[in-house]
Design brief:
By secondary structure, the protein is an alpha+beta fold. Helices cover about 25% and strands about 35% of the residues. The chain has eleven helices and 28 strands. The protein has helices spanning about 5-15, 25-50, 65-70, 100, 250-265, 280-290, 305-310, 330-340, 380, 395-400, 440-450; strands at about 55-65, 75-90, 95, 105-110, 130-135, 135-140, 145-150, 170-175, 185-195, 205-210, 220-225, 230-235, 245-250, 270, 275-280, 295-300, 315-320, 325, 345-350, 355-360, 365, 380-385, 390, 410-415, 430-435, 435-440, 455-465, 465-475. Strand 8 (about 170-175) and strand 9 (about 185-195) form a beta hairpin. The protein is flat, with a radius of gyration of 29 Å.
Length: about 475
């Protein structure tokens, strides 16, 4: 018998000997539909569990219009509305969201409502009991883009912030939020990248996901298949304004740390060890004759800072912090950022082939005022007659701005639109006197302005870029 004929006969015999159910394609269809049904039901249960703790946030605020942000002009602030999302992380009403959702808020409202989970002929219920609360701002941190707000309610469903954290590349994740105000919108994707650092000059790392995120999702959860919080959705890369599969979330360990600090201090107190570090590249290693071409090197050490006092030097290669290996600038900055305030740490470095261990304690860092408008409280800082927002001058501001003035108020923002009285004030001006009378705080400035009548002459003594000048005008 030829081989081909023998093979054909063998295949026929084999097929006849197979169990009957293996010959029915309907079985595979049934099996497939069962698996998919079970998958859908399991995913639906997890999504339903998570969305109970997700809220919609409606904010009325003074902020910088988007076209001014793009042009780098952040002086003129206008009244605007923002929609975002948040996650209840404590049953007593504490909610985590993004700083950019609530920045400059005049009023914050939180909406809790159940979601429609099924459409079934004759049994679908579309009416929902909506609860709306006025929320109090507990605190914010611009660097991490996180904020904590609170509503007066008890026994709320919540997502805990556990210390155990495990996220893997490629795992299934989903987002829940209010894109374009459409609450309880669920989207699904995977973890596209871990430890992503979009801005090389800013060592903040994110989780990247292709789960669709759109405006309004900010502050909502990125969750895993078990309903655990993977991170807080914060921004997207887009050329058209919508989701293009490039979404980024703040990792849960940073959220957990920021939440605890903001609840305790109202912000995240900045600390420093008095060093500047940078990534080792092959070119840098060759030029400085370093023993390795990867990792992290100290490029500057302040002699009077904690690191300098502990004996660390420039060109020391960082090996570990508290025994944890440090292999990159983001990990170094993240560890220092998450280190508990006031607690000592040990840094191990490599110098001239020898490992050296230094013990030091971080100290409070000088405030960093990237944008004065971030410091504005719209409910207390607006001076309506002049259309300006002002902040009382204090020692940290004096040091950061190197002002000659020892008292007064700083112009932190200009109200968009024409004010009641036109003046030639700009952001950064320090108002020290009004008609020769010292201005000690914003309340005194407002009282003095309200005492003038239409047509009265007013002269403000202003320090601008280190130079004192007068700005004169008539009240209108």
């Amino acid at each position: 018998m030829k081989f081909a004929t023998w093979l054909a006969v063998a295949l026929v015999c084999t097929s006849l000997s197979l169990p009957v159910h293996a010959q029915k394609p309907e079985s595979s269809k049934t099996l497939g539909s069962t698996i998919l049904k079970e998958y859908d039901e399991a995913f639906g249960q997890v999504a339903e569990h998570v969305m109970r703790s997700v809220v919609q946030i409606d904010v009325i605020s003074y902020g910088v219009p988007e076209h001014q942000q793009d042009n780098g002009d952040s002086q003129a602030l206008q009244r605007q509305r923002a929609l975002g999302s948040g996650v209840i992380v404590d049953p007593d009403g504490y909610i985590v969201t993004n700083n950019h959702v609530v920045a400059g808020a005049i009023r914050i409202r939180v909406t809790l409502s159940p979601a429609t989970l099924k459409l079934v002929t004759g049994h679908t219920v579309l009416s929902r009991k909506v609860r709306v609360y006025d929320a109090k701002l507990i605190g914010t941190n611009r660097y991490a883009d996180l904020a904590v707000i609170k509503i007066d309610e008890k026994d709320l469903p919540y997502i805990p912030l556990p210390e155990k954290y495990d996220v893997s590349l490629g795992q299934t994740v989903f987002c829940i939020g209010s894109p374009e105000g459409l609450d309880h919108t669920v989207t699904k994707g995977i973890v596209s990248a871990l430890g992503r650092q979009p801005d090389p000059d800013r060592p903040m790392v994110y989780i990247q996901t292709d789960s669709p995120i759109n405006p309004g999702n900010s502050g909502g959860p990125l969750a895993d298949r078990d309903g655990n919080l993977v991170g807080i959705n914060t921004f997207i890369y887009t050329s058209g304004g919508g989701s293009e599969g490039l979404g980024f979330a703040i990792p849960e360990p940073i959220v957990r740390f920021a939440y605890a600090q903001i609840r305790k201090y109202g912000t995240i107190p900045a600390t420093t060890i008095g060093t500047h570090a940078q990534t080792i590249t092959p070119t840098l290693a060759a030029a400085l004759h370093l023993p390795q071409d990867t990792g992290l090197v100290l490029s500057d050490v302040a002699p009077d800072g904690p690191a300098g006092i502990a004996g660390l030097h420039a060109k020391d290669i960082v090996l570990s912090l508290d025994g944890i290996p440090i292999d990159s600038l983001p990990k170094y900055v993240a560890y220092l950022y998450l280190h508990p305030q006031g607690q000592p740490l040990e840094m191990q470095v490599l110098r001239d082939g020898k490992q050296i261990t230094a013990s030091l304690t971080p100290v409070p860092a000088a405030p960093n005022f990237d944008n004065l408008s971030d410091l504005i409280n719209p409910n207390t800082d607006l001076i309506p007659p002049l259309g300006i927002f002002v902040i009382d001058l204090n020692p940290p501001l004096m040091a950061a701005m190197a002002t000659r003035a020892q008292s007064g108020v700083i112009v932190a923002g200009l109200l968009s639109g024409e004010p009641a009285t036109l003046t030639d004030l700009t952001v950064g001006d320090v108002i020290t006197t009004i008609n020769g009378k010292p201005v000690r705080n914003k309340q005194e400035l407002l009282q003095d302005l309200n005492a003038f009548k239409t047509g009265d002459a007013v002269a403000l003594e202003v320090e601008r870029r280190g130079v004192t000048q007068y700005i004169a005008f008539e009240m209108e």
